[in-house]
Amino acid sequence: MRYLRYRPAHRRRGVPPSPYPLVPGHEFSGEVVELGPAAPGDLQPGDRVAVDPSLFCGYCDACSAGRGNLCGNWGAIGDTVDGAFAEYVSVPAVNCHRIPESMSFQEGALIEPLSCAVHGLRRVGVQPGEEFLLAGAGTMGLLLQQLLQRGGARVTMVDHNTERLAIARTLGAQATATSVDELDGARFDAAVDVTGAPPAMEAALDALRRGGRFLVFGVAPEDARISLSPFRVYNDEITLVGSMAVLNSFRAARDLLASGEIETAPLLTHALPLDRYPEALDLMRGGAG
Ligand SMILES: [Zn+2]
Fold first, then answer.
1. 75-76 and 154-158 as β-strands: parallel, antiparallel, unpaired?
2. Contacts by residues 261-266 (CB-CB < 8 Å, ≥ 24 positions apart)
3. Residues by chain with Cβ below 5 Å of ion ligand 1
4. Which CATH class name applies to 117-242?
């Protein structure tokens, strides 16, 4: 599911999406088996690592400006080159981040999505005491919820799936609802859309207070459009920001997970071996992922 996150960037540049045949898988951790002869750093076979899938060119205008996630020659392991749904995957040594023994490889695979959430919240900002509306209680939404709460925000979660809302409540959501309409006109300092669904985005925008901030985190279809009042953006000083993947946020996400400050158990619902990969895809399509 997260794999789709990267497709719009490709389309924007007019490059076809992932060049199949390709091994997908960009959220992963594992054990170092072998090092290339010129691998920099002090990694050793046997080290446990999680891998930042980002492949930034380092020399384009965006990279030069420190915004490698907007790289003009953007690539990612599992998206533009073979990824981790395999027994072995070859990655740059500099993309490897050690994980402690206390962290399972399953948890290690959550570092990448958490690093997307870290980057997103750096973009939108969070202040203690703020009230956030979060639309979408999947894995990403539940990670964002926990980060927001750690930043001192109170979170109202909206999702049509009541089982996911129950998890959000367990994780400390101050309120939950199956739609914004159920919130009786409540207003929020900021909203984060994790659904990518235009109706959900419009409802969340309408629920902002004057001076509100809105983060587009979910991946909408490239041709989707939303209805927005330019007068209101002007008159209420609404701030609209986007967030694309990972930017210098991988290590922060690793450290947050390593510290045990992020609950992972409710998010890690299934563990399947590689030869049951098709079954995993079916589970995800069925809403379990
Ligand atoms: Zn670049």
1. unpaired
2. 261/146, 261/150, 262/110, 262/114, 262/143, 262/146, 262/147, 263/146, 263/171, 264/106, 264/107, 264/110, 266/142, 266/167, 266/170, 266/171
3. 57, 60, 63, 71
4. alpha beta
Residue-wise pLDDT for 43-85, tens only, equals: 999 999 999 999 999 999 999 999 999 999 999 999 999 999 9
Question: Cis (ω within 30 of 0) for the bond into 221?
Answer: no
Q: Which fold has domain 2-109?
A: Quinone Oxidoreductase; Chain A, domain 1 (3.90.180)
Ligand 1 midpoint to CA 147 (Å) = 29
CATH 3.90.180.10 residue ranges for the chain: 2-109
- CATH 3.40.50.720 residue spans of the chain: 117-242
- CA of residue 207 to ligand 1 center, whole Å: 37
| Number of Cβ within a 10 Å radius of residue 90 | 10
Model-level pTM? 0.91
* Amino acid occupying residue 209: R
